[in-house]
Specification:
By secondary structure, this protein is an alpha+beta fold. The chain contains 9 helices and 8 strands. The protein is rod-shaped.
């Protein structure tokens, strides 16, 4: 250490009233003399701790794992008796496992480096450490878990659609059932609505919100039978989900778009309510409930091509499909 640097450390120790032990801790932390002087509390900062206490707290924060591992290390067990010699077997040497640094440790190290360079003061540093520990950075494992969850959700929706189609096909007025929308299409990556991933601008697989089913029916007066199939399938799925530890699918996540055979005309949605009219604000839409359990939405324009898109899946067809008139 040159004479200038030695003088800087001596002046910092004197001005900050540091003990030799605290000075050694500051050097081990990688702090610079000017960082110590910068954190001397003045009269307008009565909440600030003395530099000696601050350095010791930082040292404890950074190296507590070293102290914990040293004190928690068990004493070595007594050596076992030497076994009888066995024939040697050639075993290829194993590569030593790399040292894995967690995302939280890496973030904390980066904060200490910024503190040592004078980029952060004490208050900003401590606040940043708290954020890292209580809201850690998004890890690769967390992204993989969310991706797997979105894929599992999509697969559950598809299984539900198959169960529903099998049951609804037994109704003679049901002519055809098609699955469309995001559940039928290949998933794409997007920034989700979850706050942590959205703040980090991390993309995961699209989250399917509901199941879109287009159903061609020849008799609108029997919609209650179709609604019963939705309810029965939801109950069946609850049993499956409980046994296989899968997410549940309530009936309101099943959107049934009622279509007219031959013309492919959209007539409305199967209502989620068991009573029609229910007396809800949405029941006041003009024409809604004119045919019981057939719901109309305000300011909603159905895309007539959606059930015929490239990714739409025909789950059931009683007769050979007719060419669409759309």
């Amino acid at each position: 250490m040159n004479a200038v640097r030695t003088k800087e450390w001596t002046d910092a120790q004197r001005r900050c009233r540091l003990s030799d032990a605290a000075l050694a801790m500051a050097k081990e932390l990688g702090l610079a003399p000017h960082s110590l002087v910068k954190n001397i509390p003045n009269r307008s900062e009565p909440w600030k701790a003395p530099v000696e206490e601050w350095v010791r707290r930082l040292h404890e924060e950074k190296f507590r794992h070293r102290r914990t591992s040293a004190t928690a290390a068990p004493s070595p067990p007594p050596a076992p008796p030497t076994p009888a010699p066995r024939p040697e077997i050639a075993v290829p040497p194993l590569d030593p496992a790399p040292h894995l640094v967690s995302d939280i440790d890496a973030a904390r190290e980066a904060l200490f480096a910024r503190l040592a360079d004078g980029e952060l003061d004490e208050d900003s540093f401590l606040a940043a450490v708290d954020r890292v520990e209580y809201d850690p950075p998004v890890s690769t494992g967390e992204i993989d878990d969310d991706d797997a969850r979105m894929l599992r959700r999509r697969d559950c929706f598809r299984r539900f659609a198959d169960l529903f189609a099998t049951a609804a096909a037994k109704l003679d007025f049901v002519q055809s059932i098609t699955l469309f929308g995001s559940v039928a299409a290949p998933l794409e990556k997007e920034i989700p609505r979850h706050a942590r991933l959205r703040r980090a601008r991390v993309e995961i697989w699209h989250e399917c919100k509901d199941i879109d089913l287009a159903i061609w029916v020849s008799d609108l007066t029997r919609l209650r039978e179709l609604k019963r199939v939705v309810s029965d399938t939801s109950n069946l799925w609850q049993t499956i989900a409980h046994a296989e530890h899968l997410p549940g699918i309530p009936h309101h996540q099943v959107d049934v778009f009622v279509m007219e055979p031959g013309s492919d005309r959209y007539r409305g949605n199967l209502c989620h309510y068991g009573q029609c009219p229910k007396g809800k604000p949405e029941c006041a839409v003009a024409g809604c409930g004119a045919q019981p359990l057939l719901r109309l939405h305000a300011d909603f324009a159905f895309n007539p091509r959606a059930p015929f898109g490239p990714h739409a899946v025909v789950l059931f067809a009683r007769n050979p499909p007719l060419p669409s008139s759309v």
